[in-house]
Structures are given as C-alpha cells and as structure tokens.
Amino acid sequence: MFIGHRYWYIACSSPELKHKPLSITIASLPLVIFRTASNKIAALEDRCAHRHAPLSAGKICQEHIQCPYHGWQYDTEGTVKKIPALPPDCKLASNLHIKKYHCLEQDGYVWVCLADTPATPQPVKFPYLDAPGWTSFRMKTRFLAPIDICLENFLDCPHATFVHRFWFRTPKAKPIKAIVKTLEDGAVAEYFEEPRESAIVWWLLSQKHTQLQHTDRFIAPATSRVDYIFSDQRHYIITSSCTPIGDRTTEVYTVITFRVQPIGWFIKLFFAPLSRFIIQQDVKMLNLQQANINRFLQTNYKFTPADLLLPYILKWRQSNQCNENSDSPPPPVGIEHHVDMML
C-alpha cells in the first residue's frame, strides 16, 4: 500500500499544462489536472459523476472542465455547474460532484496532494533554482521501480563505481569515512576524503587541487538532495523529487543547479547531456533489479554498514510521518553513526 498521501508530489511541469486537460496517475489514482481561462489550476478525479467518462478527454470551457460524453461541466472544486440536457433554470442536486485534490504551482511544476489536509502548506523547494549566479537544468525520468529504491540509488555512492564506472567514479578501493545523522525531516550522510581521480565528471566540473565537501540527504518522504561544495566556491546540487505512479513505477523530476562563475552556461553545455546519459545508466540497472524482484516475488534485502541511507528511508516511509495509520515513529533527531567504507 502506498504511503505518504499527505505530502506533495509533482504532477507535471508548468509548461506541460496548457489549455487542455491532462491525464495523470499518482499512487495508482487517475487524476485530471487542468488550467482555466483565468489561469487557475485544479486537480480532480478523472471521471464524470454521470457515466464515468474520463474528464481528461474533455475540454476547458472558460472556468470549467467539460465531460466529452454528455457535456457536464465541473468547476475547480469538482462541483457540477452545468448539464446541457437540462433547462438553464433547473436547480442541480447538491450531491453532483467529484473529488478534488489540493493543487498548486511552484518552481515551474504543478504539485498535487492526495490527502484532505497536506502535511505542509507547500512542497519542498528546489534550492537556488533561478537564483542570481546559479545555472540550472531539469530532467524527467521514469523508473520501473518504487520510490524507496529510486531514492537509495540517488543517494548511494558504492554503485557508482560499477554502474557509472569511469564516468562518475573510478574504482580506487580507497578507505574513506562517512557520518550519517538523523534530521527532523530525514537523514544526511557526509563523506570525507573520497576519491575523485580519473572520473570524467570530476575532470569536467572541478579544479584538480580543490577540497570537496559532499553530502547526500534524504528529505522525507520522496526527495533526495546531493551537494558537492568545492573550496573554490563551486557548488553543485542535484535534487530529485519522486512521484509514485504505481507501487513499482516512479516519475523522477530532477533539478541540477550549480554555481560556476562566470562559465555556468558553458559547463551546462556538457553537464546536461552527460547527466542524462548517467541517469539512463541508473534507469537500466533499476529496471533490471525490479524485473528480477518480480521474478522472485520477494525483497528480503541484506544490509551492510555501507548501505548508509536506505534504512532511514525505509524507516521514515513506514513511520507516522508519512502514514497517519502507522504506529512506527521516525528515527530520533540528531543521532549520528560513523562508518568506515571503501570507494
């Protein structure tokens, strides 16, 4: 069963939502989102109350969405406002409505919350997006894997040595230290003296003799943030917001934002296509992983100390912070543990 209905999830980018209804699925729920003539956005269940035709196949009539079957019109609250087969002066029954969902625009995306009361007034913001001195680009990627596994992948260093060999990491078998700390909204891992020699990404993005501060952060319930901060003031942030399509399908909206003055635009020319290439390597691996899980019909994972953040991801997503019906509390805030590992 999906957890986390009280949180915000990206339904689409703002440019995708033009003046036609858009069919989307979040947590296996079919929704229609639309933009009215006055630029107001709304999210409703994707069915007409009359004969259950999909509203997403209809059209926008000023401030209403019209069903393609019998022309019933709904406002942004999901209430029927017009039935063409009835006289204009006919009073409509008060129970003619469908379910609406909280919907807003932020950071160039349309966000939806499936619960009656959102956990927060607004979604988690993408850091430094469109800020002066920063350069950004966006990616949208579908994984045939659940949110938990996507989040672990985005926040997991050891796999990069194999899946992204020589592109992002080169096997050095160098001992490093990491510290994992629980936060109020998740957990963060910081790495010390990690190797970055002979990797194409670091050859492109960093100066040879700079010092690196690297943190991987899980923000409950479905966001990852990776920061690479260099001593020459360069700063790269990879933030991924995961939207569950179903139990085993996830749409990932990634914003990569970086400060490399004054050549941010130049770095973007190489960094954007390289990032898309690297994430497709992850898509291939996670799709293979999920297909094999489907074959064996089980996920009895084994854990080692090098699996830094997945235990926190699973704990949080099973806690009452994500699911109001769960009695399992999240990890206490401020707990640290130190890990020796090899990269």
Mind explaining what this structure looks like?
- It is a single chain.
- The chain is of the alpha+beta class and 343 residues long.
- Helix content is 17%, strand content 34%.
- The protein contains five helices and 18 strands.
- The strands form three sheets. An eight-stranded antiparallel β-sheet has the order 11-17-16-15-14-13-12-18, with helices on one face. Strands 1-10-9-4-3-2 form a six-stranded antiparallel β-sheet, with no helix packed on it. Strands 5-6-7-8 form a four-stranded antiparallel β-sheet, with no helix packed on it.
- Strand 15 and strand 16 form a beta hairpin.
- Helix 1 packs antiparallel against helix 5.
- The model has no long low-confidence stretch (mean pLDDT 91).
Question: Which descriptors apply to this entry?
Answer:
single chain; 343 residues; alpha+beta; 8-stranded antiparallel beta sheet; 6-stranded antiparallel beta sheet; 5 helices; elongated
Pairing-aware structural class of the strands and helices? alpha+beta
What pattern of helices and strands is seen along the backbone?
EEEEEEEEEEEHHEEHEEEEHHE
Q: β content, as a range?
A: 25-35%
Main sheet strand line-up: 11-17-16-15-14-13-12-18
Counted beta strands: 18
Round the Cα radius of gyration to an integer and report it: 23 Å
Helix content: 10-25%
Low-confidence stretches: none
Estimate the mean pLDDT confidence. Answer: 91
Count the DSSP helices.
Answer: 5
- What is the overall silhouette? elongated
Main sheet specs: 8 strands, antiparallel
For the termini, the CA-CA separation is 36 Å
